[in-house]
Write a structure and sequence with these properties.
18 strands, disordered C terminus, Rossmann fold, 51% helix, AAA_16, seven-stranded mixed sheet, Alpha-Beta Plaits, alpha/beta, 4 domains, six-stranded parallel sheet
Length: 783
């Protein structure tokens, strides 16, 4: 048998000595009344209680009935004669089994088991929530083997079965409260929020992981931007712990939404009201004094899980309350949801990100939780909705366009009663208007815009300005790019660094490790579009996009030079990573009459566009860069761009306008008197190339035989060699086809494939030489 004094701690030393002496006197008297002299038992002190090993053959039924009843009577008398601070209430555990002794005391599985019984949360709750003076728990073995068959001593119906899940022990116990109604097993109380009626999709692995975090940490914060499903994930985790009978919430789990509170509100009193714990026990500490003390008193002996939702606007207040509960209670577990961590010792953070979305051309769409969520919510809106091969691509595109965020996906899926997936996809460009009707019970989630508004308005004015400015970036950015943009907008670099860090903390930016040890930052597309809408409203969208275009024009020119150096590989990687930003800058320049920016980007990146084998800006984009009266552009810059558009238009699918661009470039250079420069030589090369690609050998020959003796620099002579290769290559190929076609391909034409390969290499090498030596059209140095 093991006995434990409830609420033993927190008393002065003289009271502890008095209570301990009273306990041993009471044990001696009660054992004696049952005919079991205490001196014939082994008694070992355990600080706030004792363990008693009775002689073999002592009836367990006697201990569970008469002894416990005598203890109850003795406690009543003691408490009547003592002050409240010296009152005693006992938890008593009873088990049978072998024990072993040595010079240090007793040991054995039976000893461990009886103490695990005493630690069972339902036993503690039964005593705390009643007026009982003694709470008895017996092991399942004692109940099944003895008490169930001894109704003459104790009525088995006075016992209630409870789960015992403590540390490594998972078993069953039976409790009895002498003088009180028979306790009935109750599931842990769950107040504040029940499971939502809608199905839970795509987060089962996260629920399992979170349960492990909650078991190992007393403060777990789910962080992430609005609409990621933090609340739903936390609620599902809470219910999974309850359903599994987890000890962390043995005395209950409580959901409290803090969205309606403001900084400075009495949060402790609000929690007391929400928890309904202050008056739970008439024998426990009264709910008096400061609210924090009352909250601690209500939870100090409770194994309770508190789920505090929407903490971001009360970070300081919630952090203080959490720290109080962590330091002044031993078993209270806190789970919080916030768009920013609380930032206190002992906190474990769990980032909640978007759902996985399918890549392009994926066939197994239902293998991705974002698509499953869309289909599930679409069926809730329209029971006849099905995923088909016809609408699957559109649905996948919707999920990608919404970044895999659960709330926007749910709002979009709710539209299937009125719109097809194709129509929804087409309308996503104005997503804040499209997704403008959500939960009627959660105002912040009624519209997509309201979700982002909530985060935006928690920022101070400087942070808001930084947020909307950073929205101009497409596909992400590095810190140096953010500070450069900030400088152009009048934001001091150090301040921009601080803003970026804070926006990451507040889940408005995502940070991922990039190349060369530098972080790369990205806004979810929904947040980025919100920022752009805000920029429009304050009239800064055009100015900010202009600075962004200038920034990437400068980046293109720097990297264009690096392409002709040993840093070519790194430059290509950077250009590929910045593809979205480069396209956005180019498009802005073309749309807003900033053609000089567009032309400089074509000039700088022409070599890159050619190497990639694709037109990053697209042929229509290249034409738009040139779509302005020639005399409104710097002539040499226009000529350089025309050289590249001539060449790019002749690569792959031949564009009819390409040859004309070469003619225009040639005319400009001749008018400027630059016929002995590298641009003119390259112009002749690409002009000839375009003609030969068109199978116009006569015109190509005119370009090749143009007087080249005026080209005195070495790169020009190398290109001249390439021009001669251009001239001879098509003739050789043509001759080979004629001879082969006529059935007269003689010996000297048999190695034609090898000749063709050599000629092709010579042509490419000739074009490359001016760039490798810093003399090509895209080179920014000396001409």
């Amino acid at each position: 048998m093991a006995v434990d004094i409830a609420s033993f701690g927190g008393r002065g030393d003289h009271v502890l000595r008095y209570v301990r002496k009273a306990l041993y006197g009471l044990l001696s008297d009660c054992f004696q009344r049952c005919g079991i002299p205490l001196e014939k038992c082994y008694v070992e002190d355990r600080g706030d209680g004792a363990i008693v090993v009775v002689p073999a053959g002592t009836p367990e039924s006697l201990l569970a009935s008469s002894l416990v009843d005598w203890l109850r009577a003795g406690l009543r008398k003691h408490n009547e004669l003592s002050s409240e601070v010296a009152s005693i209430r006992l938890r008593v555990g009873l088990h049978s089994g072998e024990v072993h002794s040595d010079e240090h005391g007793i040991v054995g599985a039976a000893v461990n088991h009886v103490f695990r019984l005493l630690e069972a949360s339902p036993l503690r709750a039964a005593l705390d929530n009643s007026d009982a003076l003694v709470a008895l728990i017996v092991s399942d073995r004692v109940y099944q083997d003895v008490l169930k068959h001894a109704p003459d001593l104790v009525d088995p119906r006075e016992f209630a079965q409870i789960p015992v899940k403590v540390k490594e022990t998972s078993t069953t116990g039976w409790i009895r409260l002498p003088g009180e109604p028979t306790p009935r097993e109750q599931p842990p109380a769950c107040t504040g929020r029940v499971r939502p009626p809608s199905s839970f999709v795509g987060r089962q692995a996260e629920v399992e992981h979170l349960q492990g975090l909650v078991r190992g940490s007393r403060l777990v914060t789910l962080i992430g931007p609005g609409g990621t499903g933090k609340t739903r994930l936390a609620v599902e985790t809470m219910h999974a712990l309850i359903d599994g009978g987890d000890p962390v919430c043995a005395d209950g789990a409580h959901f409290i939404d803090l969205a309606g509170y403001q900084a400075g509100d009495d949060l402790c009193r609000a929690l007391l009201t929400g928890l309904q714990l202050a008056t739970r026990s008439s024998s426990g500490p009264p709910a008096s004094g400061p609210a924090a003390d009352a909250l601690v008193a209500s939870l100090v002996k409770q194994r309770v899980l508190l789920l505090l939702d929407n903490c971001e606007q009360l970070l300081d207040d919630v952090a203080q309350v959490a720290e109080t509960l962590l330091t002044r209670t031993t078993d209270t577990v806190l789970v919080t949801t916030s768009r920013e961590a609380l930032g206190i010792d002992g906190e474990t953070t769990f980032p909640v990100g978007p759902l996985d979305v399918p890549p392009d051309h994926e066939d197994d769409l239902l293998g991705y939780p974002a698509v499953r969520l869309f289909v599930d919510r679409a069926r809730a809106a329209d029971p006849g909705f099905t995923l088909t091969a016809a609408n699957g691509r559109e649905i996948a595109g919707i999920c990608r366009g919404l970044d895999g965020l659960p709330l926007p996906i749910e709002l979009a899926a709710a539209r299937v009663r009125a719109l097809t997936p194709a129509q929804i996809s087409a309308l996503l460009a104005d997503r804040f208007r499209l997704l403008a009707c959500g939960s009627r019970t959660t105002p912040r989630h009624r519209t997509l815009e309201a979700v982002v508004d909530w985060s935006f308005h928690l920022l101070d004015e400087p942070a808001r300005a930084a947020f909307v400015a950073l929205a101009v970036f497409r596909g992400g950015f590095r810190l140096d790019e953010a500070t450069e943009l900030g400088s152009r907008l009048g934001i001091e670099p150090g301040a921009m660094v601080e803003h970026v860090v804070r926006l990451v903390d507040k889940s408005l930016l995502q940070a991922t490790p990039g190349e060369a040890g530098a972080m790369r930052y990205r806004m979810l597309e929904t947040l980025r579009e919100y920022g752009m809408v805000r920029l429009e409203k304050i009239g800064l969208a055009h100015e900010t996009a202009g600075h962004h275009a200038e920034l990437y024009q400068d980046l293109a020119r720097r990297l264009g030079t690096a392409l002709h150096s040993g840093a070519q590989g790194a430059a290509i990687s950077t250009l590929e990573r910045e593809d979205d930003n480069l396209r956005a800058a180019f498009e802005f320049a073309c749309r807003n009459g900033r053609h000089e920016i567009a032309l400089r980007m074509v000039d700088a990146l022409g070599w890159y566009l050619w190497m990639r084998g694709e037109r990053v800006f697209g042929w229509p984009g290249l034409l738009r860069a040139l779509d302005i009266t020639p005399d409104q552009q710097e002539p040499l810059l226009r000529a350089r761009a025309l050289i590249w558009t001539c060449h790019l238009g002749a690569v792959g699918v031949t564009e009819p306008e390409a040859r004309g661009h070469g003619e225009q470039a040639k005319e400009i250079l001749e008018r400027l008197g630059l016929t002995d420069g590298p641009e003119y030589t390259v112009c002749l090369f690409v002009g000839a190339f375009a003609c030969y690609r068109d199978n116009d050998h006569t015109e190509g020959d005119k370009w090749v035989t143009h007087p080249l003796h005026r080209t005195r620099h070495e790169p020009g002579r190398r290109v001249a060699a390439g021009l001669r290769a251009q001239r001879e290559g098509p003739r050789a190929r043509h001759a080979g086809r004629v001879r082969a076609g006529g059935g007269h391909a003689d010996h000297k034409h048999r190695p034609l494939p090898a000749v063709r390969r050599r000629l092709g290499r010579a042509s490419r090498a000739a074009l490359a030489q001016p760039y490798l030596r810093g003399h090509g059209p895209g080179h920014q140095g000396q001409m």
